[in-house]
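This protein record is not my work; I was only asked to verify it. The record follows directly below this note.
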Amino acid sequence: MTNDTRAGGEAFALEIEHLKIHAHPSGKPLVDGVSVTLGRGEILALVGESGCGKTMTVSSVMGLLPAGVHKTAGRINIMGEDTAGWSSEAYRRIRNERVSIVMQNPMSAFDPVFTIFSHFSETLVSHGYDGKNSRRTAADALRELGFGDPSAILDLYPFQMSGGMLQRVMLAIALLSHPPLIIADEATTDLDLVSQKKILTLLKDYSKKNDCAILLITHDFGVAASLAQRIALMKHGKIVESGDVKDFFDNPKSDYARILLSSHRGLYTERFRSIKELLGV
């Protein structure tokens, strides 16, 4: 990557170049030279086993690295803006206005003593919405995510809702600012297959309708195949293969990708066989 624009002058939604992250300057890097780009309206899956550096990469993008962990090299551009030297306030501004994050385990993202509307209200205030219309805005957001009676949902507490419902609420809150970039970090990991499909469909539809870029962090090849157009595979903090999703699944080029895909296909073949036996077909 030599510049911050695509052909025709359009800025990337996200550009990461030669990123390195260390927990100790003299130690082995947690992320080692990662480079990826994500265009407007594009969905990129960053995949790999647990501990490969996916979440550390995203944390660096969002200015949320844990204490003692530091970006030691590389460049990160968000919506054409170089993040070098950004303050905590600058990162908060970008998270409020341009980038939304949808995380794993929705129950941990909600305070159990506050209603769903209270969570919406807090986010709406941070975005400068008129308090008089906040309940209507929240209800409209939930309706967009497929809730038939959003007014009733707003009065519930998080512990009164299923994981799938909370994940849709989290997504509704994340979309309030109409962000041009969404980061979904293992956003469907703890969900059943029906809830997972709903979330993936909602993300895909939102991206297409709003020209929104999505960086999908996952260890699940099935999720990546369902949602993404491009894929980047990480191992030990490095990108070992990247490209078009169809090409990746049809003709993986690295030994590591071939091993993982073989294991994935074997697992799902065995699951399918077990289901057929259970059903007696």
